[in-house]
Amino acid sequence: MKYNLSDICDYVRGKVDVASLIYENYISTENMISNKGGITSASSLPSVAQTQSFQVGDILVSNIRPYFKKIWFAEFNGGCSNDVLVLRAKDGISKKFLYYVLTDDTFFNYSMLTSKGTKMPRGDKAAIMKYEVPGFTYKEQEKIAKILEAFDKKIQLNLNINDNLEQQAAAIFRSWFVNCVPFGGIAPDEWKNVTLEDITAMVSRGITPKYADDTGQIIINQKCIRNHMIDLSLARNHRPKVINDKWLRFGDLLINSTGDGTLGRAAPIWFQPHNLTVDSHVTIVRPATENLIFYIGLWGTQHEKEIESLHTGSTGQTELPRDRVKAMELVLPDSKTLAHFNSVMAPMASAIVTNLEENQRLAALRDALLPKLMSGEIDVSSVKI
Questions:
Q1: Buried b (16+ CB within 10 A) or exposed e, 9-45
Q2: Do both 121 and 222 map to the same domain?
Q3: pTM, full prediction
Q4: In terms of residue numbers, what domain contains 75?
Q5: How confident is the model over 354-378, as pLDDT tens digits?
Q6: How far is CA 61 from the centre of its chain?
């Protein structure tokens, strides 16, 4: 039996005072992450007195450009922008089940088909409530939700482990090369003062892409670079062409190079890239030798604020000049110290990559199961959870 979305949930229309909000509990389309990636902290609060409210258990969906698939299950109370839909499960409906109904690609495709506008399509709120949803008992809803949630919990665990590993790596870098703790608090005489240009083989912007579908050549953009990691789910394909030295390599450091709020964000490539490059808004920093890969990668993530300060241009039109990046000064440790540092970093970097690869497999399996569970193709009535 089929129902409309309006039969299982309602739009929330409450208000909250902006004065009571902080960056961590204000949600806008800007700090919702594409491809069902959840949220991050906001960079600003609205200038109005009140805004839309939400509470724990609500489902927030970005209503601008539905193809970005921005959705989040609220884990705390807060406020959000008017471009974010807040949906609340009706009595007798599992909140998590409603969340997974809305994470199905079928829902986002429907939202796009019924949207209004071309350059910046918006979901039609009335049409969204007519979206057909499957009919299950509450017990079946809970079973479906728990099956899918098991994948998400494992994905989140891996992300938490990676965050911890990244923090450990950053702490070791600061201890060794900023505070010089293993060396009595003083940089050894063998260490040299150099510029980034002295120890890199290339500091260059990426290419101007011509986007296409399923070409096998992938372009990383600024949205892909966040929290010192690279999210390939936000990358796009472009028309095949010879790229030569701008094909990305293991050990390259990527730096966002245009625009307020994103300029300076850095992420190292600690995996083997295949047919990957970056667009012209991202700078590639390539270490001159293999033993500098972890050092330069962590140096970049630990100096984002300094890199950001090098920008030129006015608000909204800022750029990161390549020459200023190349002229940045840093200390180059001796080869023995670098070798020891690399022996510590290598297994940590390997673990991070392994977890990311596992998450890709888990997400793919979850997304394959979701429509089969929702359609009833997979019967959960006899499943014990």
A1: beebeeebeeeebeeebbbbbebbbbebbbbeebeee
A2: no
A3: 0.84
A4: 2-135
A5: 998 899 899 999 999 999 999 889 9
A6: 16
